[in-house]
C-alpha cells in the first residue's frame, strides 16, 4: 500500500479482510483496491512478480512472500446482464463508488493506515448487531447478480449473522433467479456455506425461503417431509441439516450428509401400523447426489467419493476388528474413516445415544492404522516373484493367489510373515485352489 501511495495512487484494504479484522478474526486473504490502473500497478512494482490474473476486471496479483495479494482497480459496475454479470466494468477514482457495488454492508468497508475505516453504508453498526443487509435496494442488488442471494446464506453460516428481514424477503422473492447462475459459482458458495459454523441455521433459512431448492431441486420434496419413524425427531430436511452440522468441517463428508437421504421421499412407503419405510433409499439418494454434483460441476473424483459415501451410508456396524479390516481392504482406510464420520453424524442427527457405537469403531480404525495391519496386496510379506519361484505358473493365477493370501492376512494380520505365506501358497498350489481357499 505504501508503494502504491508513494507512486501517487490511493490504496485501501477492502471487503472480507476489513470485516474479519473488525470481528477479531484472522482474514483468509487480503484484498487491496487502488486508483492505479492494472498496468500502473505492474509498473509500480518493477522487478516484482505481478500476475495479470483478472485484468479485464482490473485485478492483478502481486506474489508476496506472505502469500499472493490481489490488487484491484477501483471500479463501478455498469448495467447487469442475465442476472449474472455486469455488462461493462468502468474504472473510477472514487472509493465510495467501488464500495457501493459490493453486496452486503459488512463487506463494503475499506481501511487504510492514517485514514482508518471508510464505512459509507453502516457496515460497522451491522457488524456489531450481527446483521446482513444489502448495500442499497436488496431486490435490485439480487436482481443484478443472483449469486448474492446464495452469498447471503453463505455469510449467515460463516459469520453466524442473521439476514435483515427485507433482505431475506427479497432473497425469497428472487430465489428462482439462481437457476440462471453457473454451477461453478453456485458450488463455490455452497461449499463455504456447508463448512460454516452456523450451517444448521443457514440451511434452515435457505430451505424455508426457497433458496435451497433453487440450487438443488431434488431437495424440494424433502422439506418438511415427515418420516413416520419413532427414532427420527426431524423431518427429512432438518435431519439432513442436523447431520451436516454434527459432522467435522470437511467438504466431502458434509456434502455426503447433505445428500444422504435426499431420495427418501421418492421411495417412501407407509405400513399398516403407520410406520414409514424407505427401501433402497441409499442407492436412490446416491443417484440424485450424482446428478446434483455433476450439474454443479464438482470435480469428478470428489463427486465419486461423495456418492460412494451416500450409497454406503447404511452399512452395518462392523462386528469386530476383522470385519473392519475387510471393509478397509475393500474401500481403503481413508474412505472408511469418512464413512465412520458420516454414520456418526447421521446417528447424532436422529438419536444421539447411538453415536457412541461409531466412536468405538473409530477407535478400532485408529488401532488398525497405528498397528500398520496389512490391507492391500502391496502390504503382503510376499510378492508375485516369490510365488513364481515356488513354481506357480505365471499369469492371472498369481494375482488370484495374492488375493487369497490378502484375505488370510486381513483376517489374521499376524500371519503376514514370509515363511507363513510361502507355506500357505504352497498349500494352495498343491490343492489347486488358488482364489478359493
Ligand atoms: P472470504 O473470507 O470467504 O473470502 P470475502 O468477503 O472476502 O469472504 P469474497 O467472495 O472473496 O468474500 O469477495 C470479496 C469481496 O468482494 C466481498 O467482501 C464483497 O465486498 C465483494 N463481492 C464478492 N462477490 C460479490 C458479488 N457477487 N456482488 C457484490 N460484491 C461482491
Ligand atoms: Mg475473499
Please give the structural blueprint.
Elements: H1 2-6, E1 11-14, H2 16-22, E2 31-34, H3 38-44, E3 50-54, E4 59-64, E5 67-73, E6 75-77, E7 80-81, E8 85-86, E9 89-91, H4 95-100, E10 110-112, E11 116-118, H5 123-129, E12 131-132, H6 138-144, H7 147-159, E13 162-163, H8 165-174, H9 183-194, H10 199-208, H11 211-215, H12 236-246, H13 251-259, H14 264-267, E14 269-270, E15 276-277, H15 281-295, H16 300-311, H17 321-331, H18 333-348, H19 355-371, H20 384-390, H21 396-411, H22 418-431
Parallel strand pairs: 2-5, 12-13
Antiparallel strand pairs: 1-2, 1-10, 3-4, 4-5, 6-9, 7-8, 10-11, 14-15
Bound molecules: adenosine-5'-triphosphate and magnesium ion.
Structural overview:
With 437 residues, this protein is α+β, with helices and mostly antiparallel strands. It has four domains: 1-128, 2-Layer Sandwich (Beta Polymerase, domain 2), CATH 3.30.460; 130-215, Hydrophobic Seed Protein; 220-371, Hypothetical protein af1432 (Orthogonal Bundle); 377-431. 51% of the residues lie in helices and 11% in strands. The chain has helices at residues 2-6, 16-22, 38-44, 95-100, 123-129, 138-144, 147-159, 165-174, 183-194, 199-208, 211-215, 236-246, 251-259, 264-267, 281-295, 300-311, 321-331, 333-348, 355-371, 384-390, 396-411, 418-431, and strands at 11-14, 31-34, 50-54, 59-64, 67-73, 75-77, 80-81, 85-86, 89-91, 110-112, 116-118, 131-132, 162-163, 269-270, 276-277. Strands 3-4-5-2-1-10-11 form a seven-stranded mixed sheet. Helix 13 (251-259) crosses helix 16 (300-311), helix 15 (281-295) packs antiparallel against helix 16 (300-311) and helix 17 (321-331) crosses helix 18. The longest helix has 17 residues, at 355-371. The radius of gyration is 28 Å and the shape is globular. The chain starts with a helix and ends in a 6-residue tail after the last helix. The mean pLDDT is 93. Residues 16, 29 line the site of magnesium ion (MG).
